Structures are given as structure tokens and as C-alpha cells.
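G., the chain you wanted modeled:
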Amino acid sequence: MGGLLREQREAGHDDGYDEAAQSASTQSVDPMADDDDGESSFFSKWTLPVVLFLLTVFTTLWAGAYQTYQGPVRGPVNFLLAHPETLWRGIPFAGALLFILTTHELGHYVLSRIHRVPASLPLFIPGPPHFIGTFGAIIRMRGAAMNRCALFDIGVAGPLAGFVVAVAALVVGLSLSTVVDRTASYGLHLGEPLLLQFMSWLVIGTVPPESDVVLHPIGFAAWFGLFVTSLNLIPIGQLDGGHVAYALWGGRQRVMAFAFVVILMVLGFVGWPGWFLWAFMAGIFGLSHPSIVDPFTPLGRSRTIVGWIAIAVFAVTFAPIPFSFH
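Predicted structure as C-alpha cells:
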């Protein structure tokens, strides 16, 4: 497959690298308990989620419109001031991205409700429009999962639900993408996980080595959805992958977390420096998953199979070097 890229308007523009890592880090379920054991206020239950969602709609529309802009204005702020009427051009990107993120968080939310673990509605975090316009979303859980089955279901539901939507969006996005001569292309080149290579071959066909695929905004949103999925399935701490690994293997999750931190450090040296940030965050927030009330409830065959499916999803969505600039 040829290279995969997102064209940039400003040479050397790399603001999205750390933003992407921060965005994905907020995707996992937040298991911290609220200090207040009583009913949530109307503001925290409804007003705050709605306001944050509307702000994120605006910032992702802004980011999506700026991605498609090819004029002389430099910078997203100047672009918005000069061409506010073009925000509608960000709808394909913003719609696809928010659909993926919302589905991910609702997977956690629905399974939390099924297992009677109180949880907030998804809280979206608006971000600068230079790259994707959001730092992702979280849900607040006011209680811990009581047993392995509940922990597993809540942890795995988000990544798998978001993955299904991301794959559907990827098919649409690739069908709308264009193939260009590599010598004439420039910009932010995206990593190519195994799934993306396969889907590109399936939808576009064989791309010559001297060519690149310029992703349509829907395809870029889908790519980012796959990136977020892989990051969340890393078996570290209280990421979704940490929940799944702890539910499957108990205390051995800690050994896996240490091994992945070493891998991330190596990848930081040989590839994308953003992995250093992830390794640092893992050290700050903890590698080990906290214990649960009942760690002995058997998962059963069906959940174990789903767990291995989640591991396979991680393998086919992980890109060792997710970003490079040419």
C-alpha cells in the first residue's frame, strides 16, 4: 500500500501529535468515584454534558472545515474570522468523529447501567481546532465494578462498539479518498495498521509504491477512531485494556503493563516520540489495575472469546509509528 496522509496547510505544523495522544487518553472509562454519594445535581447530570457536547460539536466542525481549507489564510483562528460561513464543510469529519466517540462512550454507559454501576452521561472535552478539535470524552462512574464479569463487560464494550462504527466509517471514507503521486504530496502521514492496509486494498485496490492515499475527512475520522481504539486497549492501569486484561488474567495484568511500557519506550526512541508521553502517563496514573470486590467470579467461555477478539482488534488497529511529517 502507498503512504497514507492528511495534507497540511503550514509546513512543519505538528500541533496534533500531542493532542492526539491526550485525546485518546481520555477515551477510557473514568472509574473514580464521586465524593458525593447522593443524587447528582441537574447541572452535573444534564446541563454540563449537553453544554460540553455542543462546544465539542463546534470545535470539531471548526477543525473539519479548517482541514478542507486551501486558501491563503494561515491558522484556524484567522480562518474562522475570515470564513465563518464555511463551517458547514466540517460536517463530514465532525459527524463521523463524534459518532465514533459517542458510540464508544455509550458502550461503557449502557453496560454500566446493566450492571447497576451508576455512571454519568458522556462528557465530551472540546479542544483546539488545529487537528481534531477535541480531547475525547469520558464517563464518570460513582461506583466500582463488583465482579470480573461486570468489569470485563464495561471495559470491553466501549472499544468494540466504537471499533464497529469506525470500520463502517473507514469503508465510506476510503471510497471517497483520492490517490495522488507521492512526489507531489506533503503533509502529515498517518500510520498504517494492518486493518487499514487490508481495508485500503479491499476498497481502493493496490496502491503503487510511488503513490499516496489522501484521506477524505470521513476516512481521517475513521483512522483516528481506530487509533483511539488501539490506545485504549493497551493493558495498562485503568485504560479499557487494563480492565479487560485484569478481568481475564488477574494479577498478571501488571506484568503485561510493565512489558508494554518497555515496548512504548522503545517505540518512542525508534519511531513516534509521543509514546514517551504515554509511558510517562502510565507511570503517573499507575500500571496495575486496582483490585475488585469479587475477583473470583468466572468469566465463562463467551466472555473469554470476546476478550480474545478485543486483543485481535488491538493487534490490527495498532500503528507503531502513528504520525510522521513529510
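The CA atoms of residues 219 and 289 lie 34 Å apart.

Shout if anything looks off.
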